[in-house]
Design goal:
The protein is of the alpha+beta class. 29% of the residues lie in helices and 24% in strands. The chain has one domain: FAD/NAD(P)-binding domain, CATH 3.50.50.60. The protein binds flavin-adenine dinucleotide. The site of flavin-adenine dinucleotide (FAD) has 39 residues, from helix 1, strand 2, helix 2, strand 15 and strand 19.
Amino acid sequence: MRIGLAGAGVLGRLLAWQLSRAGHAVTVFDPAPGPQAPPTGQLGAVQHAAGFTAAGMLSPVAELDNAGPDIARLGWRSLALWREVADTLRAEGCTTPLFAQHGSLMVAHSADLGAARRVLARLETAPTLSADLPPPRPLDRAALAELEPALAPGLHAWLLPGEAQVMPREMLAALAEHAHGVDWRWGCRVERVEPGALHIEGLGVLPFDLAVDVRGLGARTKPTPPRPNTVRPEPVEGLSHSGQEGLQQAQPERNALQATDLVSRVRGVRGEIIWLHAPGVNLQRPVRLLHPRHRVYIVPRPGNLFVVGASEIESEDRSPVSLRSAVELMAAAHSAVPELAEARIVHMEANLRPALPDNEPHTHTEPGLLRINGLFRHGWLLAPALVQDALVGTGLPPAPLRGFSPPVPEGGHSLGPGEARSSAVLVNSPH
Ligand SMILES: Cc1cc2nc3c(=O)[nH]c(=O)nc-3n(C[C@H](O)[C@H](O)[C@H](O)COP(=O)(O)OP(=O)(O)OC[C@H]3O[C@@H](n4cnc5c(N)ncnc54)[C@H](O)[C@@H]3O)c2cc1C
């Protein structure tokens, strides 16, 4: 099948890689100058895929604080899929660390315990948690010191077993590099996507058997009026087969909108992050600080790097990181990991998360057309499950991945420090 993809972000590259492995002829269009990650070491604003800016946290349980049970379920499925994607890429010769699964931690200072307990109560009463996902496991002082000695003594802590992280820049690069046979058209902006055709700026209309719109915020267009006297095939919309029912009940108004109209309402939600370089500071897993005012996490990356993020601001301002965000993020990170005091600030970045009015992802399929958008703050968390469902929905089941069985803790069994699954793609702890 000839498939034209608009957008080479998280969704676009994952789709291109999957579809090319399944033997399809894939062409990808993106205005970016090339596949490479944008340069670091700048303190300015950027205009590239949100996927490059992301921290790469895969936190379905912790995100229950911000999202519904469908998101958590999809995210839990995606964890296993990311692991298989990383294993497959490793088997295809990729040597860069792409994925790590050591669980994650939620921590709180004593003064903020009230706020932390409210978050935990929300998590513990979420229907998904008790049914499908392992609940947070409280850690005493000794257990925390053993697990993460760099954390401030006296912090209250909960381990979220099974949570994971991807290395966004490396994963995006690896997916593009290993998507063999894909025709990448960099520097090409897609103006419109319709069934069986992409409208490319300066090139005109190109026909495809399947046109795919995964442009994130770039998909925003003026709503097009319905075509009169045309019989449109019934669209299949929703999160997934399992999530569709709940979504339709919860948001009937969204189903009244045509896919193009809904996607035209995509908005950007500003997020800011800071990269720290701190040789000698060791963190094995992402740490999320529960705080009454800020949601701050610290994510260890290879090379003694730590990504501290992220603000969430209802604004499409792409200007550089503000002083207020920088101070709040860094103060919170320092309070949780005092050894970061001597870290060097090596990079700051602001970008926009593509979000729909209800902050839920949206998949639309009809003959000749697939659109996925609105991944908001969960793009990495949700992409593999959304892509899998979408490909099945379009009758294009993805090629099997060469992975191992998903490392889902059974019966709430927690991953202890010595129990982290071994894999060549696991990130080594920074030294
Ligand atoms: C600060 C920050 C932190 C985040 N942290 C996390 C996290 O820890 N975990 C998580 O799960 N998610 C996180 N996210 C969210 C995640 O990055 C997004 O949800 C995800 O990138 C959305 O994927 P996408 O493919 O839809 O869009 P994008 O990744 O934005 O990709 C869209 C692509 O479309 C291209 N494009 C745009 N316009 C056009 C056009 N006209 N024609 C062709 N191509 C076009 C763009 O160049 C881009 O390559 C974070 C986001 C931010 C900003």
